[in-house]
Amino acid sequence: MKYLVTGGAGFIGSNLTNMLVKKGHEVVVIDDLSMGKVENLNDLGKVEFIKGSITNKELMKSILTKYQFDYVFHLAAVASVADSVERPVETHEVNYNAVLNILDLIRKHQRNLKRFVFASSAAVYGDDPELPKKETSSIKPMTQYAVDKFAAERTAINFNNLYNVPASAVRFFNVYGPNQNPESPYSGVISILLDRYTRNLKGENIVFTLFGDGSQVRDFIFIEDVLHALLLVSESEISLGQVFNVGTENETDLNQVIMELNEIYGFDLPITYEAARVGDIHRSVADISSLKSLGFMPENTVFQGLSKLVEFLGR
Ligand code: NAD
Ligand code: UD2
């Protein structure tokens, strides 16, 4: 099969690309390397890597007219909520306008497509007290990131309904695993935590900044489980035109994550506390009944996932 993975040098995209290549599929990756790294791709010789922005209309047209894809996974985005608060206009260009353009190009030029899978986010639910979040829960996007994710997700589903562009969307909760870039202040919290543990182990005296009191709750899901979910959604017939939460249904607060990592590493990470971030969501947990109806069952607890990740990174 032929796949296009946008954002394929990033965290989720590179893990997906590496798995697809391992299964013997052909993969084209487009990434501007703003957050991703070519080194995340295990077998560059087997991937057609294109460095460029999804906002470049000419480039996207050339890719989507040159190849006929079976599957498109759209993962490229300004992936940080806090970054979108700093850069709402740039975020909108990447996280919405580019998606609309890609869908329109697919509508006009892709004849073999089996599925376009859009990476949306649990952020669309906002801070509404109704928990766990069901796909039918109320939507309360609190940042440009969340507004654009919801709008792009609806656009993908509308292209499915109006123009027969086969599309599904997934709302990721908090994903963690190898290849998550810890270098931006807006990186995923687990990647930042692991970076701080390893640097302390190497003798650097570096403190982790906790925004809030650590009681914020997330539904953390390990990348292996996410890849399983992505394959199920892309290959199932009943997922066509549908949106799926991708989480575990387990609530973990940040203090517990740090406690488990202290146990895995065998020392207490030095922490400094700052005010909670503007736009931060206090509690987020998924209802995954819909995903389970496709045959999904998360296999890793947070402790198991963190242990595998620490193993992978080496101490
Ligand atoms: P990531 O930042 O590692 O990956 C995104 C990739 O897109 C990066 O490699 C980046 O360089 C690339 N990119 C950014 N702007 C681009 C542009 N204009 N043109 C081309 N490439 C561009 O983030 P991730 O965690 O792998 O997230 C993947 C997708 O999943 C994103 O759409 C993100 O919003 C969504 N998501 C992630 C999580 C999570 O917990 N990681 C949660 C919810 C949703
Ligand atoms: C994540 C995703 C986002 C999204 C959402 C879905 C990333 C980078 N962001 O946002 O794309 O769709 O999940 O729910 O993966 N924190 C600290 N110290 C730090 C960094 C973070 O205390 O150095 C806190 C942060 O304020 C927040 C929590 O940790 O309360 C999680 O932050 P995050 O950026 O990992 O994830 P989130 O949920 O904001």
Automatic annotation (TrEMBL):
Signal peptide: none
NAD-dependent epimerase/dehydratase domain boundaries: 4-247
Alphabetical list of Pfam families matching this protein: Epimerase
Lineage top rank: taxon: Bacteria
SUPFAM superfamilies: NAD(P)-binding Rossmann-fold domains
Similarity field: Belongs to the NAD(P)-dependent epimerase/dehydratase family.
Protein name stated in the entry: NAD-dependent epimerase/dehydratase family protein
Organism for this UniProt entry: Enterococcus asini
